[in-house]
Amino acid sequence: MKLLLKGGRVIDPSQDLDAKMDILIAHGKILEVGRKIHKHGANFRKQTETDITVINLGGMVVVPGLIDMHTHLREPGFEYRETIRTGSEAASFGGFTSVACMPNTMPANDNRSVTEYIVRKAAACNIVNVYPIASITMGSEGNVMTEFRDLRDAGAVAFSDDGKPVNNSALMRRALEYASSLGLPIISHCEDLSLSAGGSMNEGFVSTELGLQGIPAIAEEAFIARDIIIAEYTGALLHIAHVSTAGAVRLIRTAKERGLKITAETAPHYFTLTEDALREYDTCTKVNPPLRTAEDVKAIKEGLKDGTIDAIASDHAPHAPTDKEVEFEYAAFGITGLETSLSLSLRLVEESILTLNQLILKMSTIPARILNLPKGNLRAGADADITVLDLNKKWTVDRAMLRSKGKNTPFHQWTLKGKPVLTIMGGGIKYQELP
Ligand code: DOR
User: Fold this and answer.
1) Radius of gyration over every alpha carbon of the chain, rounded to an integer in angstroms
2) Which of 71, 82, 290, 365 is the most exposed, fewest CB within 10 Å of its CB?
3) pLDDT per residue over 42-60, tens digit each?
4) Which residues line ligand 1 (CB under 6 A)?
5) Is 315 in the active site?
6) 203 neighbors 218 (Cβ within 8 angstroms)
7) Residue 281 maps to a domain
8) pLDDT of residue 40
């Protein structure tokens, strides 16, 4: 069956394209992108009309399928929080056609059989492409390196002990060197545990007022500085996860100015909320690294604008009510994010911090580049992974309606403008709510 997407505003940052175009899809691939593709044109000569589904996308924006490079799918082991299927459904609702999933499962994704399990399960679900990120160390415990080559051969696209830092600098050095020799990045969760341990929120005036132990910005910045130094020494591929502080942005900016090929991501909650959101002790605002100050939010936005921060990732961290409905200190860290990520990020376009083109770069084209995925563009011959956005559609976040098992959103009852309305993966419609 062929699919003809007609009359949408097609934005493809990979080829600097922003124009009203039609897209013809067949056999899971983009066959043609052109100004006016007719049902009876060259590509249809041998087809009967019933073979073609035409979707009119006048007034809609058509972009390369969004790619979330930092998702927690929780399977295997924590299926009460999320499964590969519910996570995939949430991703598709949020406009994502690909997600890379973190290895802090049970067991951790530290060996080939777990990687293969994830790949197989995701393929059976057939909703989004799922790319496993394998652990740097066995059990993400920071002691013994995993078998990088074996994991790469099984389908891992990067290595990370996300949720925990790699404390041992010598091990981090070896991991960076080895991953780089395979052409894969290390995604670093930067946190000096000796500075952060026991903390629940950003350290500062508000934490003192609320009587909660703080996590200082320097806990994040100390390890970013260390990793930048190791990356410079080794020339390796370093990607810094969930950047949240002004100091972190400064460190990464300076490193890039000096020519280092490091990359970095932030998540929507770090440019949308400040530590003030914790004043009601809502555990849905508890996340690691924590929500910071207004100055940090400003710096994150500047970092996004000037390219210091390459990508926006959801850091989708679904948790069960039993993880969150406890005293603040005991609650799990994490915000469910796949379904609100794009709409929250579109606020950056409204605020003129990013152009729409730049936003799609950071949510599709660049993540594809960092993870070496043959994705993130709308060229003829590419996989037909496509997201259609209605920039004017208003919707109200309702945690009960989320596809994810994780209802832990601090954005409950927020009304947002702009939404994915059609998600196509591998030429198949996986989600749609077209007007
Ligand atoms: O808030 C967080 N939640 N930060 C992390 O680094 C891990 C994540 C999780 O797995 O829940």
Assistant:
1) 21
2) 365
3) 555 444 556 899 999 999 9
4) 72, 104, 162-163, 189, 287-288, 317, 333-334
5) yes
6) no
7) yes
8) 60
